[in-house]
TrEMBL record:
Transmembrane segments: none
Protein name: AMP deaminase
Listed GO biological process terms: AMP metabolic process; energy homeostasis; IMP salvage
Organism expressing this protein natively: Kryptolebias marmoratus (Mangrove killifish)
Alphabetized UniProt keyword annotations: Hydrolase, Metal-binding, Nucleotide metabolism, Zinc
UniProt keyword Hydrolase present: yes
Listed GO MF terms: AMP deaminase activity; metal ion binding
Pfam families linked to this entry: AMP_deaminase
The protein's Enzyme Commission number: 3.5.4.6
Similarity comment: Belongs to the metallo-dependent hydrolases superfamily. Adenosine and AMP deaminases family.
GO CC annotations, alphabetized: cytosol
Reaction it catalyzes: AMP + H2O + H(+) = IMP + NH4(+)
Amino acid sequence: MVSSFIPLQGLVTGGKMKKGDAPFSKQSSACLGTNMPRQFHKVTLSEVEEEKQILAEKVYASALKEEDNKDALSMFTVPEDCPIGLQQAKNHELLKDLAEQQSEESSKRRKSFKLIRSQSLSLQIPGTTDCPDLGTFTSLMSASSTLSSVLENCPDFQRVSISGDYCAGIPVEDYEQAAKSLFNALLIREKYSKLAYHRFCRTTSQFLRSAENTKWDEEDEVLPDMCPCPAEGEDPYSEENIPEHLNYQLKMKDGIVHVYDSAEALRKDQPYDLPYPDLETFAIDLNQVLAMIADGPTKTYCHRRLNFLSSKFYLHEMLNEMAELKELKSVPHRDFYNVRKVDTHIHAAACMSQKHLLTFIQKTYKTDADRLVLEKDGQKMTLQQVFHSLNMDIYDLTVDSLDVHAGRQTFHRFDKFNSKYNPVGASELRELFLKTDNDINGEYFAQIIKEVAHDLEESKYQHAEPRLSIYGCSPDEWENLSKWFIQHKLHSPNMRWMIQVPRIYDIFKSKKLVPNFAKILENIFLPLFEASVNPQKHKELHIFLKYVSGFDSVDDESKHSNHMFSFRSPKPEQWATDDNPPYSYYLFYMYANIMVLNNLRKELGLSTFQFRPHCGEAGSITHLVSAFLTADNISHGLNLKKSPVLQYLYYLAQVPIAMSPLSNNSLFLEYSKNPLKEFLHKGLCVSLSTDDPMQFHYTKEPLMEEYAIAAQLWKLSTCDVCEIARNSVLQSGLSHQEKKCFLGANYLKEGHEGNNIHRTNVAQIRMAYRHETLCNELSFIVDAVHSEAINSH
């Protein structure tokens, strides 16, 4: 492609980040490369086992049936298997173990594993040396020289280890089968993460390369690009240095926006060389993981490993708690109160407390009672008239009569919960105070958010990522939202913005606002592509997108869908029925467009976006499988408790999970049954978030309230809550520069090397324990892959 624009200096081409480069480059004019090596590798049905596809469809159908028939109140309280089934499984495993002991082949395999496990310590830290040639056994010991250099600065603490020739605790054949399945699932997530510029755990990536006998290279690591926070004195709304027009052509095809060099290229259907995903490949990859979560040996293996992780942390805490506390006490000017915390899951329309909203309404009434604020039935009304029409006296209004707080009456009633967004049950007040597009251009809502932002700036150490809605029923939504943002000057150094897309196509279709599902996708994503390639035409949107860190998919997950997602699902242009598409369908098309958009923006030197959907709060377990492939991180994740395979996969890949126990307590799960403490102890990457302070919290600092209640109820230590806070910064949409400032210059490194205790107040002992434990779990998978290669050799 010939272009008059100069490529961005230091532009990361081919999707790779060079050593020493900051993950975000300043925006300027740039052109797309002609040959992009990053492509979406397509898979056809002939390349995979048909049996797996059939099994996966059975799992999906079973999940849908369970979702349709189950009693909501029994969630998380009934064991998955009945006692008879458990006894039969135990007997079957015992017989299998006895048969294995008498098998000569199994005996050879055990000896092979014994040799490999004897070198497990050196295998647990791969990546900096060439991986061993599996042709000989002796070469497996080649990583030992690396170990001493890595462990040189490792903190000294009491470690828990298991010795012996075979540590998996299940028959060899089952172990091999489970490890191979887990290995393939991690490769699938890595593929989808890297293509979309989502993060993938560095340690896990190193072990995957080790298993493939290739060298892990830091230059191959892919990271999201976030726009740095403007420097002090710099205008965050400046229109200077906006890139020139590129005049590319855009067209939505099969629900995904395609980019073309010119009208001629569009006519010939020759899109740019960007990675365009396809539904069939995604469905096949999804089915591989679906089939895996129903596999007996894999479930047994993952269940045992998770139990081991829980027990191991209990022993670690018992042995090292005082040593961790001693470390923290020796750190000057740093404690839980002044470490950075990010509320990574909070909705803008409920980001204030109920008391804050009440005070604001009363204060506004005093100054604006005679102001025309609303048009109803063709008649303009003053604020005073609005309240009179509701038969309300503003001075009699209390927190109780405001009635925005969720309680026992909202448990498993998402419809009642949504009605809590209407103060005193009046949609007029929601329209007036909690909307961006109304007769006063969202002025009151903007003022409330600015007050919340001011409180965050006053606290200094708390940040938030409020979610604003884009519905997809009109292409003008983006322009209106960006104008609102700039007009009211809503930028804050303590806020990043997320865009939430409600899954309510069925409502828009029933009202004849859209002809098909493709129109919603077009209204959501086409304006973003246009603002990326022609920013001069969309200056306000271009500026607003600098401060948007990602997208969320929201709605009631427990809503049932009659359609079973598969490669046979209709394309978005063909989805013209009144039925709502299933969760996986929404996630794929959101991910697909975000992936193409991120690759385009990366090539142009612009910021990228994360995909961070609500997932696992309720509904089918298949939601978590879809998110495992497509999401950078998720919100809630409660249903991971129901699937040991998925829970273990989320641990191995270190998928971040923003959990909101107070929110769950009012909607889906009692606080005492929330799995956050269990997930934290096992080593999953969890953080605490508020979700909706207006509905669930009482104080002026809802995030601190969330931490305080969790710490009190579960007896979390200072190190525990600081670890959760550190996780929140890592999974947030803050820029690379901000994370370096808040976590330390080496935060991208794993374990104690990536932790600056003077910034995070997390003990080096804790970080070393987490890293070594993850390495140990990953080494089991690598051992199985190596053993298989040795045996075949």
